[in-house]
Specification:
Elements: H1 2-14, H2 16-45, H3 65-85, H4 90-108, H5 140-151, H6 156-175, H7 181-201, H8 203-210
Main location: membrane
GO cellular component, one term: plasma membrane
Protein name: Sphingomyelin synthase-like domain-containing protein
């Protein structure tokens, strides 16, 4: 298995352009985390009163914070494994995630609706570094797995896993009252646009991603 990994990834490791692009994609991801932090804290600080919601106002709160926290962690560990196993997928995947986070950071600062009054309290210190309470529109828990489904669409098993994750997380954030309905349902449409924007901006990275077999890189 190790020999197979070395054989299929060695050409990319030796390609300086690929290596520098990968480093750049990691740096951009870190920058997006910083932007997300300041956007999230600002939106939370400025949040106003909550509003009624067709779904949240008519269902009780379910204690599913374990899925919200540990399900998300497990999903991203899986994404890391998939990318490390086939490193040519790293640059486009990370660039797309960074673009998603940056665009979402802009959205959450446009309107500052307060959190729904009945909701599950998340105790995880790790999750609280990425979600802040007032950063509602649109749902990252729903959108990011859907983005992974679009990115890995040609790999049927991965597509099914990520689509199922997106639907499950969408249901969880509604059942825990952590997101409004519009946060969840809009995430699919906005994420679809982000994916195609990433394809347009990061053409070389997408070409690497779609290569079916190792070959000499130009």
């Amino acid at each position: 298995m190790l020999q197979k990994w070395i054989r299929e990834n060695s050409l990319y490791v030796k390609d300086k352009k690929f290596v520098w692009t990968t480093i750049l994609s990691i740096a951009l991801l870190l920058v997006s985390f910083v932007i997300n932090y300041y956007a999230g804290t600002y939106a939370t600080r400025r949040e106003s009163s909550p509003v009624t919601d067709l779904i949240l106002s008519n269902i009780p709160v379910f204690d599913l914070d374990g899925i919200f926290v540990y399900g998300a962690i497990a999903l991203w560990i899986f994404v890391c494994f998939v990318c490390v196993w086939d490193i040519k997928k790293i640059p486009f995947t990370l660039h797309s995630i960074s673009l998603f986070i940056i665009i979402r950071a802009g959205f959450i600062n446009l309107t500052h609706i307060g959190q729904f009054p009945t909701r599950v309290e998340i105790e995880s210190d790790l999750i609280q570094k990425f979600t802040f309470g007032g950063d509602l529109f649109f749902s990252g828990h729903t959108g990011l797995p859907f983005l992974m489904a679009l990115i890995f669409w040609r790999q049927v098993k991965l597509r099914i896993i990520f689509l199922a994750s997106s639907i499950v997380f969408g249901a969880v954030v509604l059942m825990t009252h952590l997101h409004y309905s519009i946060d969840v349902f809009s995430a699919f449409f906005i994420t679809y646009s982000i994916f195609h924007l990433a394809e347009w901006i990061f053409k070389k990275e997408r070409a690497w991603f779609l290569e079916k077999s190792p070959k000499q890189l130009s």
